[in-house]
Amino acid sequence: MKLYRVPITPTSQFATKLKGDTLFGQICWAIFYKFGKDRLTELLKAYKKEGNRPFLVVSDGFPSGYLPKPKMPSRFLGEKSEDKKLNRKKLWLRLDELIGGEYTKAKSDKEIENSDANDITIHNALNYKTFHTGDGFDPHGLTISHLDKKDIYFLLDKSQLEFNEFIEVLELLSDMGYGKKASIGKGRFEYDKDKIELIEVDRDSQAFITLSPFSPKGLKVKTIFYDPFTRFGKFGANRAYKNAFKKPILLADVASVVIFDEVQEHQYLGNPISGLSDIPEYSDTVHQGYSIVLPLKELS
Description:
The chain has one domain. 19% of the residues lie in helices and 29% in strands. By secondary structure, it is of the alpha+beta class. The strands form five sheets. Strands 1, 2, 7, 8 and 9 form a five-stranded antiparallel sheet that branches. Helix 1 crosses helix 6. The longest helix is centred in the N-terminal third of the chain and has 16 residues.
């Protein structure tokens, strides 16, 4: 499998965070529309646990040129315990700093000039049959994000999905829009095919950092550091009309650190997740429980 860094430029507001598992789901829909249901079914058959051969693993979106600092106790990061409040703001490392263990070089959003900002807009629930609200005034808030340029990492098995096919799918996704409110123009972005970069790193290590939420279930590890992340997913596109809500999933969030007893080689870790709905027609739905991983320097 080959690891690619794809720089994107948001061209509209986003109503959903750039998370790898959500991106993967939307890419599956783009494959469905571009190449048909049979092609997607074939790809997901190998992706599922019995095949354990993902055709694609997608990362979260990160500030251009940076990756997240590992979520480990300060003593492993070389940070001073008395600077705890300051350390919490130091979120981002360059690739060479991350895999080289130079965690004290982490920078804040302000230092890397990442000016992501959120606004909350107030909406009111409306019954489109009656064109009235419910029992009285039913306001709710919608968080809208204004994003700077981002990097998204894609681990691609070109024997299953060719690179040119992947580009076609990405092009369709950029036009469709990502996440909530895509139908009214949210989640649009642009990218330059010529700026897509092949990333090559030494994969042998005892410790790895994850680049998206993932399912560590069944992993035989020495230690794992993570923040829990609960995914309350929804079905989209053609499957949003019966019961749009998926069963909740508990995952280990991005920047988790997985440590093995001995040196191993990994490009990704985790498990695919199924059984997300009791609706029989939706039994083939698969959630990305895999994550791209990068090797970390031996921990002392």
